[in-house]
Amino acid sequence: MKRGLLRSIGLVFSILMLISPALLFFIWMLSLSLKYEIDNSASPPILIPTNVAWSNYVDVFNSNRFLLYFRNSLVVTGAATLIALLVGVPAGWAIARLDAKKTAIVIMIARMTPGLSFLIPMFLLFQWLGLLGTLVPQIVIHLVLTIPLVVWIMISYFETTPRELEEAAVVDGATRWQTFRMVALPIAKPGIVVAAILSVIFSWNNFVFGIVLSGRETRTLPVAVYNMLSYDQIAWGPLAAAAIVVTLPVLLLTVIAQRQIVAGLTAGAVKGG
Amino acid sequence: MRTGVRSYWWFLAPALVVVAGVIVIPWAFTLWMSVHEWKPGGAIAYVGPSNYARLVSDPRFSEALVRTLYYSALAVFLPLVLGTLAALAFHEQFPMRGFLRGVFVMPMMATPVAIAVVWTMIFQPQLGVANYLLSLIGIPPQLWVFAPNTVIPSLVLVETWQWTPLVMLIVLGGLAAIPTEPYEGAQIDGASAFQRFVHITFPLIRPFLMVAVLLRLIDALKSFDIIFAMTQGGPGNASETINLYLYQTAFAYYDVGYGSAIASVFFVIIVALSLAALWLRSRAAWMAEPVGDAS
Which CATH superfamily, name and number, covers A55-268? Predict the structure, then answer.
């Protein structure tokens, strides 16, 4: 009995130790975003401010054309995820049913490739096409990230769904398209949700593509935050507030859909970039 | 009436077309560009392997290579050890396990640039909270990412904080696949917790650890966002890894031909090191009689 109690205390202690770096970091991030400059430069540091600086958040939305960049991020992430689902879900199904295991190696190689090596030709191409002022280049290059991710997750998902139903449909005279549309796709909804969530997160978070391919009007949020870091290094409060606004949608999604995210990450063991 | 296997290819075709367009053709172009010389305003000229020859004698590249290996070694090893320990803890049953696991996973899902911004404030030598915390336990203030000798360990600290959860999730998947019988036997034989880990758990999760090593290695070698946002490769060139040097060459100096050569060699390095890790994995699998495959 005593051993069991000691074990429980040990476990509680280890779990606390494990989550505290993440927890303390995000609490400190929140604290920085809610303090005026005088509190942010206080020594010793202040965790909970007496004067809460909501104005930091107001500043974020008023200045730096944040709403435009928010919209850009939404368009790029939305389009890149949608296109990836449209071409990636059927592809994942076909690969799973064909047992084309070699395709997995191709996807692994895509993952090994440094993003910057796609950027050199893409940059030159879009400069030549005169499209650098639009969001098109970023949507296209985000596909490098989202398509392998969606295909990878859908392969491992379709491998777990039964073939028998599809075979029965074929026996009943369904075409391949009908089999996919009426039998395979409805069962695959949970897998599609996982693929969509991870695609949205990794596309939203992407920085390297935006830093090269975006101009003043076409920045995504990570690029906008980076530019704040390099220009107003002194204003910690608004900067931390901007960082929170950028990452909050993703963090909320992580906590709400943690079960799906964990399933997706361990099934495919994938990450973008 | 049977619908042939060939009809599956119609489902694959759109993805193949897009992948060819955004991955294969750009890659072919990068390879082609790497044997040419081109700067804005000039014409493209064929220069043969001279860009590659330049790499060999470029001290900035060899320094970046050494730095990348140093950074990656630390950024693979530390998350691997900590992630395995975390997985052992999260494998236990306790209340709010799912939620707490969600909190633990947050660093790897958060936007890297947003994280970099906050870590830069934490590391700030005068006002940052890191030096304050050190002062509480009597350690003198550090310069963190603002001094050449501490910049890489500080960046590795951030990378470890960020990516330990990925290792945890992979190893957790491995632990879930282990049968319980060996443990029952060991319990009867009176094996200690440490002995059980060394003789039962470790050999069984070794294939999963190798997957974690492989993925971590690829990501650490390619690491860009955190380093670029926090230091831009500085101070001086002290944190300039190959990926950052590649960025500078291609997009700051617009030396596209040389940048393409760096990109090609960098890709070969990543593939070579990954194959080395895979080779180790197959050896480990041979020694450990794997129970499952995480990939």
Answer: MetI-like (1.10.3720.10)
